[in-house]
Amino acid sequence: MASTGPQDPEALDDETRWRSAGDRIQTLLDASAGSGTVVRERTEQLAAELTDLYGAALERMIAITAGSAPELVDQFAKDELVASLMLVHGLHPHGVERRIEDALDGVRPYLGSHGGDVALLEVVERQDGPVVRLQFAGSCKSCPSSAVTLEYAVEDAVRAAAPEIVSIEVVAAQPDSPESPSLISVDSVLSRLRDHNDRAGATWHPVPDIGDLGQGEIAGFLVAGVPILACRVADDVFAYHDRCGRCHESLAGAALHRPLGAAIGQAVLRCPRCHAHFDVVHAGVGVDDTAETAEHLDPIPLLRRDGVPSVSVIAEASGVM
Questions:
Q1: Low-confidence ranges of the chain (pLDDT < 70)
Q2: Pairwise CA distance, residues 129 & 127, whole Å
Q3: Could you tell me the strand order of the sheet in which 116-126 lies?
Q4: Nearest-10 crossing angle of helices 80-88, 37-68
Q5: Other beta carbons within 10 Å of 252
Q6: Domains and their CATH numbers in the chain
Q7: Order of strands across the sheet that contains 268-270
Q8: Which residue of 131, 191, 207, 249 is surrounded by the most CB atoms within 10 Å?
Q9: pTM for the whole structure
């Protein structure tokens, strides 16, 4: 099983540096405050003038493109960097609902890996701004997986695609009364999880080599000091902490196989030490008939961000403080 060290920031510069550009600009503006109010105001005015200038140029470029090659405008909208600038200047060709639907399509493979799905019910225009109402379907195979999925995959994707929304509401169907959903605020549902994550320091880390995995291939990676295991099944890639759910040893040397009679797209991972089996497509749940406890692997969120496969490592869950 291959293993890599921490990612070199310089190697990822072209793919990732623009994402933090806003933070760097704000840092420079804050630094100018030390030179007095006048300098701060002039610096902010300069930034605003430059923003308006490239915004006006971008608007003209899109107008010209829409007139000569309208299909390219949709291609612009699919590029995360260009789309983000289009959003800033109100030039995005798609409305908020279309953008959210596209964002949810991007995270559905991860939701599916935990036995769930999500649907956009509506976008409600309220006095303080648009509110997104989502409904989750299916059931996740483990509570940590469910929470991480909602926190990192869905909310992150929706807010990135539609920064103008003011809140996300989740309509969760009750098991005993599927026709009487209850309205839950994401902030209240995830408050304890966020407190946990604040202590743990969960952070996204680009791992471009994961995208090079071949069908049925497994590889190990060391991300921010945390050993993880990634494997490809058909078109999807799944990531887990490199720790067996039964013997808690490393899964180095593990192999994937499709159970006899199972449909294409199903895959079971066998621990090379205790020989326990886990369903990697469905949250790493244990599949052995003799299992006396709810054994499962610990999933790690894996999404394509800025075109680069990235994982979110939760330090406390991995034992790295």
A1: 1-23, 110, 113-115, 138-152, 172-202, 259-265, 289-294, 306, 314-321
A2: 6
A3: 116-126, 129-138, 167-174, 177-185
A4: 110
A5: 15
A6: 13-88 (no CATH), 96-200 (3.30.300.130), 203-318 (2.102.10.10)
A7: 255-257, 268-270, 277-279, 285-286
A8: 207
A9: 0.55
